[in-house]
Amino acid sequence: MSDLWVLSSDGRCKIFDKHADGYVRREAVYELFLKDLDHALRDRDHIRATVRATAAGSEGNSGPGIKDLSQTAFVECYGTVTAIGDVVEATAIAR
């Protein structure tokens, strides 16, 4: 992968930085346990958040997007951490 110039030379991810030179490989495990709100209330669970909506992405222009951007609270970036990739992503987010 380093021969393709996609891995960071110093092992640091510098997304949207002029010194960005590639991404850093990492592994992680995320667990999310969902429970029906009625059941959580009945069981007196500690509710940390409620899911009000869901969405899915497909890395492509596949249909209409969010119509009211003022309702957007979070944007997850792909983070290629390359000069061209960061510009393309930042420009798309700004639009």
Please characterize this protein's 3D structure.
With 95 residues, the chain is mostly helical. The chain has one domain (1-53, 64-94). Helices cover 19% and strands 0% of the residues. The protein has two helices and no strands. It is flat, with a radius of gyration of 19 Å. The protein starts with 36 loop residues before the first helix and ends with a helix. The model has no long low-confidence stretch (mean pLDDT 79). GO terms for molecular function: acyltransferase activity. This is Thiolase-like protein.
Task: Briefly characterize the structure.
This protein is mostly helical and 95 residues long. The protein has two helices and no strands.
Q: How far is the N terminus from the C terminus? A: 32 Å
Give the low-confidence spans.
none
- For the secondary structure, the number of strands is 0
Count up the domains. 1
Biggest sheet features: none
Number of H/I helices: 2
Shape: flat
Strand content: under 5%
**What is the subunit organization of this protein?**
single chain
- Rg (CA only): 19 Å
* Overall mean confidence score, pLDDT: 79
